[in-house]
Design goal:
Protocatechuate 4,5-dioxygenase, Chain B; alpha/beta; 3-stranded mixed β-sheet
Length: 304
């Protein structure tokens, strides 16, 4: 009798713990990508297999890759470069693509699910980050329908085979059209400079200039901002962003949809000693007069 009761209690607590864990389910599976694990694995594997391993020298600390499905060759190129890496934590950053909000959102889920399986969230690091500043809060609602991080995860699952955790972060107000820009990126970069290990990674999910005007301004914009990013100058990028945002002819356009993630990555990279910043590839697409640029950029240091 006692054994039966203990067994029932064990089952109860196991089930209770399973249901008490928060899971961010894949919102775009079956839409942007297959919701069948075998089909998705085949698709992602083909993308990865068809890319070259370019970054043979140095250790990548920060990676900028596109999330737009039309640019997945560039996404695969970037993720291929970290094949065999063994990070404990992978931080994924972008700007929120819905209605702007003040501050920085950290996801409070325990796991992010894709058709390829569940990826645990580093809740300990998330709790510590949120406790550092009032501008950084738990807000899982903004992650529910945001595709910028979800679309990168199957690539991550393909190239990393160790036990790792992720930390998804969305900046809420970086896509404003005015000149007032948030400095929250510096709070985040300072935190990670002090709290990440040498083998951890920052991945910025970012598509470059979005041009609604149809006059190919995005090409000049991308050339300039890539030049600034490769120079590693955060202040210069902020100045360029302000000038871009205040140009009435560009109203409605976006300089880069993960701009605060890029600023975080640049500042973090500088804080940990800097190194080489290199663009591996660039591309763009035209969808009925709507132009978007894409770039795969790595920030790496000499191996130690």
């Amino acid at each position: 009798m006692r054994t039966t009761i203990l067994s029932l209690l064990f089952i109860f607590f196991f089930v209770w713990e399973s249901y008490s864990q928060l899971v961010r389910n894949p919102y775009y599976a079956g839409n942007y990508y297959p919701n069948n694990a075998d089909s998705l694995n085949l698709l992602i594997s083909d993308y990865i297999r068809n890319q070259d391993f370019i970054a043979k020298e140095g250790k990548i600390k920060v990676l900028i890759v596109p999330h737009y499905p039309q640019a997945w060759e560039l996404t695969a190129l970037g993720l291929k470069q970290i094949s065999g890496y063994t990070p404990k934590t992978v931080v994924l950053l972008c700007n929120y693509h819905g209605m702007p909000f003040n501050g920085v959102a950290v996801d409070s889920s325990d796991f992010w699910r894709t058709p390829l399986g569940d990826i645990p969230v580093n809740r300990e690091l998330a709790n510590k980050l949120v406790s550092t500043n009032k501008n950084i809060v738990f807000n899982s609602s903004v992650f529910k329908e945001d595709w910028t991080i979800e679309l990168v995860l199957p690539f991550l699952q393909n190239v990393l085979i160790n036990d790792y955790e992720i930390l998804p972060i969305l900046f809420g107000d970086g896509l404003k059209t005015g000149a007032e820009l948030s400095s929250n990126y510096r709070i985040v970069s300072d935190f990670f400079s002090e709290n990440l290990n040498s083998y951890d990674l920052l991945i910025i999910s970012n598509d470059m200039a979005h041009d609604f005007t149809g006059d190919f301004i995005f090409k000049a914009t991308d050339n300039k901002q890539i030049q600034i990013i490769e120079g590693g100058d955060v202040d210069e990028l902020i100045k360029f962003q302000k000038d871009y945002n205040m140009n009435e002819k560009l109203h409605g356009n976006v300089i880069s949809c993960g701009i605060d993630g890029i600023k975080t990555g640049l500042d973090y990279f500088k804080n940990i000693g800097g190194g080489e910043i290199r663009t591996l590839d660039y591309g763009n697409t035209d969808i009925d007069g709507y132009y978007v640029g894409f770039a795969t950029i790595i920030m790496s240091q000499n191996k130690k």
